[in-house]
Amino acid sequence: MLSRECFTNSKSWPFEEAKKIISRLNNKEETRKDTVLLQTGYGPSGLPHIGTFGEVLRTTIVMNAFKLLTGISAKIFVFSDDMDGLRKVPTNVPNQEILQKNLEKPLTSVPDPFGKYESFAHHNNAMLRRFLDSFNFEYEFKSSTELYKSGAFNESLYKILEHYDEIMNIMLPSLREERQKTYSPFLPICSRTGKVLQVPIKKISLDDKSIIYKDPETNELIEVSVLNGNCKLQWKADWGMRWAALGIDYEMNGKDLIDSFKLSSKICETIGELPPENLTYELFLDNEGRKISKSKGNGLSMEDWLKYAPAESLSYYMFQSPKRAKKLYFDVIPNAMDEYIDSLEKYQTEPKEKQIDNPVFHIHNGAPPHYEWRLKFSVMLNLVQACSCSDEEVLMSFAKKYVGRNCSKNTLEFIRKMARFAISYYNDFIAETRIPAVPNEKQKSELRELKNVLLKTNENSTPEDLQTIVFEVGKQFYAANLREWFKLLYSVFFGTDNGPKMGSFISLYGIENMVNLIDERISDDR
């Protein structure tokens, strides 16, 4: 078993983040906490998207690293800002007229356009929880509406009221001149319309724990308590208040919220609490390099990814380089799958002190599965094309021969999933775009030579032996630039400039099938 010293010496980002929490605990004057609290926030104004999952995953990975380093209990709060007013109608939901009629109302007061839940927020919260549960995340769900209305935030809300002027001085310089005229950290909920109002506050009363504002439609002065859900806070004030009220030790956020985090931290300090430790991660981008938006529905959804690749590959992609902007679109899936498989294979042979820096150690919480394979997702995709196959069982017959008879049940189950995903991905994204090239007479002669050598080759040759054969044949024609030889093979067999190791592919596909494929590609009838 690895010692805590080994984890301490690790330079991987989860352990580095966990060390920040340890330093925080050591520097705080209060008694050491029994349980460290990490938080991730979610705005249910649109359908949950894949970036939300990524934040929960990364926070979970940091929590697990902290536990390994310290042995101290830790938990994650997944917090839904479901008391926010609905600002605009998402474009990717049905019955948009329902939402249009309920703009500015708290999300938990907006009817569910899907007609399934108590409110739009309840629908989106349920979708988020269902998905997170399917990954067996350990978390405690927190609803903004429930915490406000139950009085759980009352003490911290009163502190915001006590420090009203100081908080205004923090926030006003960050706002446009026009917004400064109407800004207040408190947003009263109108008893007449049910809307969340952004109105200037005329007076505050510490004794009555209330604010007075002018109704924008009736011009009547209204006094309302700031407690028990009669008001909510502007979100930067809300963020800082929430950290203080819940005792949050760690929260990460996207690059677009750097300034917001700084302002919320000042507010948290103003009401007497230490803001959490923080990691700023880069944003996920769609295919055109734009930030993924819940309301626009651009980029990949969680369901999209899981149609074409297993959850493990998504976790792997989320783990890698959180401080680097990453495209989140369909074309990243095959590479993520192959890199995940590479990391699993590497993990099996690494020294234990190196394993803790391998991504699969973190995404599987220290217990990655063991698979016996050398089969990549990209190879499976090429197999689907080569044999024009959409039959999972046909692909499995090739795979079973390739990985051997003694292959474990878990390995075969994973390969079966990979075959299923490969068929879906190929049919949806590759079939119409990959058109095998027609070789000229010189190239046909070269391919014919490869066929003749393969005909003399033992069917049980290893992928390495077959790769050597492909190299040796290529050297006869492309000694000065073997890359041109492989470009020819890939373009003729797969309709692309890049492809798998040919030795691995031939071993999987079978020498006899490969000979038949060459005959098909060099046929004069094409």
Description:
The protein has 526 residues and is of the alpha/beta class. The protein folds into three domains: 4-171 and 235-284, Rossmann fold, CATH 3.40.50; 299-430, Arc Repressor Mutant, subunit A (Orthogonal Bundle), CATH 1.10.10; 441-522, Arc Repressor Mutant, subunit A, CATH 1.10.10. The chain has 24 helices and 13 strands. The protein has helices at 4-8, 13-27, 50-70, 96-100, 120-134, 144-150, 154-162, 164-171, 177-180, 235-246, 258-270, 302-308, 311-319, 333-349, 352-355, 359-363, 377-386, 392-403, 409-430, 441-455, 463-478, 482-494, 502-509, 511-522, and strands at residues 35-42, 73-80, 140-143, 186-188, 201-205, 210-214, 221-225, 231-233, 250-251, 253-254, 280-281, 284-285, 326-327. The strands form five sheets. A four-stranded parallel β-sheet has the order 3-2-1-9. The longest helix has 22 residues, at 409-430. The protein is elongated, with a radius of gyration of 29 Å. The termini are far apart. The mean pLDDT is 91.
